[in-house]
Amino acid sequence: MSRRPEHLAPPELFYDETEARKYTQNSRMIDIQNQMCRRAIELLLLPENTTHLLLDIGCGSGLSGSVIKEYEHEWIGIDISSAMLGVALEREVGGDLILGDMGQGMPFKAGTFDGAISISALQWLCNADKNSHDPPKRLYKFFSTLFSCLSRSARAVFQFYPENSEQIELITTQATKAGFYGGVVVDFPNSTKAKKYFLVLMTGGATVLPRALSVNETDSVVPYASRREQMKKAKGKYLKNSKDWIIEKKERRRKQGKKVSEDSKYTGRRRCGRF
Description:
The chain has 275 residues and is α/β, with parallel strands linked by helices. It has nine helices and seven strands; from the N terminus they run αααβαβαββαβαββαα. Its main location: cytoplasm. This is 18S rRNA (guanine-N(7))-methyltransferase.
Protein backbone atom coordinates (compact mmCIF):
# COMPACT_ATOMS: atom_id res chain seq x y z
CA MET A 1 0.00 0.00 0.00
CA SER A 2 1.25 3.46 -0.87
CA ARG A 3 2.27 5.65 2.03
CA ARG A 4 1.24 8.85 0.27
CA PRO A 5 -1.83 10.16 2.14
CA GLU A 6 -3.61 11.27 -1.05
CA HIS A 7 -3.65 7.61 -2.17
CA LEU A 8 -5.37 6.43 1.00
CA ALA A 9 -8.51 8.58 1.08
CA PRO A 10 -9.91 11.97 0.03
CA PRO A 11 -8.53 14.76 2.24
CA GLU A 12 -11.82 15.46 3.98
CA LEU A 13 -11.90 11.80 5.07
CA PHE A 14 -8.20 11.20 5.65
CA TYR A 15 -7.91 14.18 8.00
CA ASP A 16 -10.57 13.08 10.44
CA GLU A 17 -10.60 14.14 14.09
CA THR A 18 -8.01 11.53 15.12
CA GLU A 19 -5.59 12.43 12.32
CA ALA A 20 -6.12 16.15 12.90
CA ARG A 21 -5.16 15.93 16.56
CA LYS A 22 -2.23 13.62 15.87
CA TYR A 23 -0.90 16.03 13.25
CA THR A 24 -1.22 18.99 15.60
CA GLN A 25 0.43 17.30 18.58
CA ASN A 26 3.43 15.77 16.80
CA SER A 27 6.44 17.97 17.58
CA ARG A 28 8.41 16.75 14.55
CA MET A 29 5.54 17.54 12.16
CA ILE A 30 5.10 20.94 13.78
CA ASP A 31 8.79 21.77 13.36
CA ILE A 32 8.81 20.70 9.70
CA GLN A 33 5.59 22.61 9.01
CA ASN A 34 6.99 25.74 10.64
CA GLN A 35 10.24 25.55 8.66
CA MET A 36 8.43 25.13 5.35
CA CYS A 37 6.03 27.96 6.16
CA ARG A 38 8.90 30.32 6.99
CA ARG A 39 10.59 29.43 3.71
CA ALA A 40 7.32 30.02 1.81
CA ILE A 41 6.96 33.46 3.40
CA GLU A 42 10.57 34.26 2.46
CA LEU A 43 9.80 33.34 -1.16
CA LEU A 44 6.82 35.74 -1.19
CA LEU A 45 9.31 38.64 -1.02
CA LEU A 46 6.85 40.84 0.85
CA PRO A 47 7.79 44.49 1.48
CA GLU A 48 9.19 44.85 4.99
CA ASN A 49 7.72 46.81 7.89
CA THR A 50 4.20 46.46 6.52
CA THR A 51 1.35 44.21 7.59
CA HIS A 52 -0.08 42.13 4.75
CA LEU A 53 -3.17 39.99 4.34
CA LEU A 54 -2.21 36.46 3.29
CA LEU A 55 -4.29 33.48 2.18
CA ASP A 56 -3.32 30.12 3.69
CA ILE A 57 -4.57 27.41 1.33
CA GLY A 58 -5.02 24.06 3.06
CA CYS A 59 -4.56 25.79 6.41
CA GLY A 60 -5.42 22.67 8.43
CA SER A 61 -5.20 23.20 12.18
CA GLY A 62 -3.56 26.61 11.82
CA LEU A 63 0.11 25.72 12.26
CA SER A 64 1.13 27.88 9.29
CA GLY A 65 -1.20 30.61 10.47
CA SER A 66 0.70 30.80 13.75
CA VAL A 67 3.91 31.40 11.79
CA ILE A 68 2.21 34.08 9.68
CA LYS A 69 1.23 35.85 12.91
CA GLU A 70 4.85 35.69 14.08
CA TYR A 71 5.68 37.82 11.04
CA GLU A 72 2.87 40.18 12.14
CA HIS A 73 0.74 39.59 9.07
CA GLU A 74 -2.99 38.89 9.00
CA TRP A 75 -4.35 35.76 7.37
CA ILE A 76 -7.42 33.88 6.20
CA GLY A 77 -7.32 30.11 5.91
CA ILE A 78 -9.30 27.68 3.80
CA ASP A 79 -9.36 23.89 4.20
CA ILE A 80 -11.56 20.99 3.15
CA SER A 81 -11.30 19.15 6.49
CA SER A 82 -13.85 20.22 9.09
CA ALA A 83 -11.93 18.22 11.72
CA MET A 84 -8.75 20.19 11.03
CA LEU A 85 -10.61 23.49 11.20
CA GLY A 86 -12.21 22.37 14.45
CA VAL A 87 -8.78 21.91 16.02
CA ALA A 88 -7.75 25.32 14.66
CA LEU A 89 -10.75 26.90 16.39
CA GLU A 90 -9.84 25.19 19.66
CA ARG A 91 -6.31 26.53 19.37
CA GLU A 92 -7.60 30.08 18.78
CA VAL A 93 -5.10 30.55 15.95
CA GLY A 94 -6.09 34.15 15.20
CA GLY A 95 -7.12 33.89 11.57
CA ASP A 96 -10.49 33.67 9.83
CA LEU A 97 -11.27 30.10 8.76
CA ILE A 98 -13.31 28.89 5.79
CA LEU A 99 -14.44 25.35 4.97
CA GLY A 100 -13.96 24.79 1.26
CA ASP A 101 -12.58 22.61 -1.52
CA MET A 102 -9.70 24.34 -3.33
CA GLY A 103 -10.61 22.42 -6.47
CA GLN A 104 -13.90 24.32 -6.61
CA GLY A 105 -12.13 27.67 -6.61
CA MET A 106 -11.32 30.45 -4.17
CA PRO A 107 -14.46 32.31 -2.98
CA PHE A 108 -12.92 35.75 -2.54
CA LYS A 109 -13.26 39.16 -4.17
CA ALA A 110 -10.75 40.34 -6.74
CA GLY A 111 -7.50 41.71 -5.34
CA THR A 112 -8.23 40.69 -1.76
CA PHE A 113 -4.83 39.25 -0.82
CA ASP A 114 -1.25 40.50 -0.82
CA GLY A 115 0.05 36.94 -1.16
CA ALA A 116 -0.81 33.28 -0.65
CA ILE A 117 0.98 30.28 0.77
CA SER A 118 0.16 26.59 0.88
CA ILE A 119 1.98 23.80 2.70
CA SER A 120 1.60 20.16 1.61
CA ALA A 121 -1.80 20.58 -0.06
CA LEU A 122 -1.39 21.16 -3.81
CA GLN A 123 -0.63 17.53 -4.74
CA TRP A 124 -4.11 16.47 -3.58
CA LEU A 125 -5.61 18.20 -6.64
CA CYS A 126 -3.76 15.79 -8.94
CA ASN A 127 -6.03 12.93 -7.81
CA ALA A 128 -9.59 12.18 -8.94
CA ASP A 129 -11.29 11.24 -5.67
CA LYS A 130 -14.75 11.25 -7.27
CA ASN A 131 -16.09 10.29 -10.69
CA SER A 132 -16.84 13.95 -11.31
CA HIS A 133 -13.26 15.03 -10.59
CA ASP A 134 -11.08 16.01 -13.53
CA PRO A 135 -7.62 17.03 -12.17
CA PRO A 136 -6.70 19.45 -15.02
CA LYS A 137 -10.06 21.22 -14.75
CA ARG A 138 -9.91 21.40 -10.96
CA LEU A 139 -6.36 22.74 -11.06
CA TYR A 140 -7.33 25.39 -13.63
CA LYS A 141 -10.39 26.38 -11.60
CA PHE A 142 -8.23 26.73 -8.52
CA PHE A 143 -5.43 28.71 -10.15
CA SER A 144 -7.72 31.00 -12.15
CA THR A 145 -9.77 32.01 -9.10
CA LEU A 146 -6.60 32.37 -7.01
CA PHE A 147 -5.13 34.68 -9.66
CA SER A 148 -8.25 36.82 -9.46
CA CYS A 149 -8.21 37.24 -5.67
CA LEU A 150 -4.53 38.26 -5.52
CA SER A 151 -3.29 41.81 -6.00
CA ARG A 152 -1.41 42.42 -9.25
CA SER A 153 1.96 42.55 -7.46
CA ALA A 154 1.36 39.45 -5.32
CA ARG A 155 2.98 36.05 -5.28
CA ALA A 156 1.70 32.62 -4.31
CA VAL A 157 4.08 29.99 -2.94
CA PHE A 158 3.18 26.33 -2.64
CA GLN A 159 5.28 23.73 -0.88
CA PHE A 160 4.14 20.43 -2.34
CA TYR A 161 5.12 16.79 -2.81
CA PRO A 162 4.93 15.88 -6.50
CA GLU A 163 4.71 12.18 -7.17
CA ASN A 164 6.54 12.43 -10.52
CA SER A 165 7.56 14.83 -13.27
CA GLU A 166 4.16 14.43 -14.97
CA GLN A 167 2.44 15.93 -11.93
CA ILE A 168 4.80 18.90 -11.95
CA GLU A 169 4.06 19.49 -15.63
CA LEU A 170 0.31 19.16 -15.02
CA ILE A 171 0.39 21.71 -12.20
CA THR A 172 2.63 24.26 -13.90
CA THR A 173 0.69 24.02 -17.18
CA GLN A 174 -2.62 24.85 -15.49
CA ALA A 175 -1.05 27.66 -13.45
CA THR A 176 0.35 29.21 -16.63
CA LYS A 177 -3.01 28.92 -18.41
CA ALA A 178 -4.58 30.79 -15.50
CA GLY A 179 -2.23 33.75 -16.02
CA PHE A 180 0.60 33.08 -13.59
CA TYR A 181 4.31 33.35 -14.27
CA GLY A 182 6.93 31.47 -12.31
CA GLY A 183 8.18 27.95 -11.79
CA VAL A 184 9.44 25.37 -9.33
CA VAL A 185 12.25 26.03 -6.85
CA VAL A 186 13.83 22.87 -5.43
CA ASP A 187 15.66 23.37 -2.14
CA PHE A 188 18.46 20.94 -1.25
CA PRO A 189 18.02 18.96 -4.51
CA ASN A 190 20.81 16.49 -3.66
CA SER A 191 19.39 15.53 -0.28
CA THR A 192 16.92 12.69 0.12
CA LYS A 193 15.38 13.98 3.37
CA ALA A 194 15.79 17.75 3.09
CA LYS A 195 14.69 18.09 -0.56
CA LYS A 196 11.64 20.34 -0.85
CA TYR A 197 9.63 21.56 -3.84
CA PHE A 198 8.20 25.09 -3.90
CA LEU A 199 6.01 26.34 -6.72
CA VAL A 200 6.56 30.11 -6.90
CA LEU A 201 3.86 31.93 -8.88
CA MET A 202 3.78 35.62 -9.79
CA THR A 203 0.90 37.79 -10.98
CA GLY A 204 2.80 40.87 -12.17
CA GLY A 205 4.87 39.44 -15.02
CA ALA A 206 7.89 37.22 -15.44
CA THR A 207 10.85 37.76 -13.11
CA VAL A 208 13.84 35.68 -12.10
CA LEU A 209 12.95 32.83 -9.75
CA PRO A 210 14.47 32.92 -6.25
CA ARG A 211 17.63 30.90 -5.82
CA ALA A 212 17.18 27.46 -4.28
CA LEU A 213 18.83 26.54 -1.01
CA SER A 214 21.77 24.14 -1.26
CA VAL A 215 23.92 22.42 1.35
CA ASN A 216 26.92 23.08 -0.91
CA GLU A 217 26.33 26.82 -1.18
CA THR A 218 25.48 27.86 2.36
CA ASP A 219 27.44 31.10 2.03
CA SER A 220 25.37 32.37 -0.89
CA VAL A 221 21.84 31.44 0.13
CA VAL A 222 19.37 32.38 2.80
CA PRO A 223 18.96 29.48 5.26
CA TYR A 224 15.77 28.61 7.06
CA ALA A 225 15.66 31.25 9.79
CA SER A 226 14.88 29.91 13.21
CA ARG A 227 12.32 31.77 15.24
CA ARG A 228 14.83 32.82 17.90
CA GLU A 229 17.32 34.03 15.28
CA GLN A 230 14.61 36.20 13.76
CA MET A 231 13.90 37.72 17.14
CA LYS A 232 17.57 38.51 17.74
CA LYS A 233 17.42 40.82 14.73
CA ALA A 234 14.49 42.71 16.22
CA LYS A 235 16.55 44.69 18.73
CA GLY A 236 14.61 46.32 21.49
CA LYS A 237 11.57 44.13 20.93
CA TYR A 238 10.19 41.40 23.14
CA LEU A 239 10.49 37.75 22.07
CA LYS A 240 7.35 36.99 20.09
CA ASN A 241 4.65 35.06 21.95
CA SER A 242 6.38 35.78 25.27
CA LYS A 243 4.24 37.21 28.06
CA ASP A 244 5.67 40.72 27.64
CA TRP A 245 5.12 40.58 23.87
CA ILE A 246 1.49 39.50 24.30
CA ILE A 247 0.78 42.20 26.89
CA GLU A 248 2.31 44.87 24.65
CA LYS A 249 0.28 43.67 21.66
CA LYS A 250 -2.95 43.63 23.68
CA GLU A 251 -2.26 47.18 24.83
CA ARG A 252 -1.82 48.32 21.20
CA ARG A 253 -5.15 46.76 20.31
CA ARG A 254 -6.86 48.46 23.26
CA LYS A 255 -5.56 51.80 21.96
CA GLN A 256 -7.06 50.92 18.57
CA GLY A 257 -10.42 50.49 20.26
CA LYS A 258 -10.54 46.72 19.81
CA LYS A 259 -12.04 44.37 22.37
CA VAL A 260 -9.29 42.52 24.21
CA SER A 261 -9.45 40.06 27.11
CA GLU A 262 -8.19 41.25 30.50
CA ASP A 263 -4.62 40.44 31.57
CA SER A 264 -4.24 37.74 34.20
CA LYS A 265 -1.64 35.41 35.68
CA TYR A 266 -2.40 33.04 32.79
CA THR A 267 -1.53 35.58 30.08
CA GLY A 268 1.23 34.20 27.89
CA ARG A 269 1.31 30.83 29.64
CA ARG A 270 1.52 27.80 27.35
CA ARG A 271 -1.52 25.56 27.54
CA CYS A 272 -1.87 21.87 26.88
CA GLY A 273 -2.42 21.15 23.19
CA ARG A 274 -1.37 24.64 22.06
CA PHE A 275 1.81 25.69 20.36
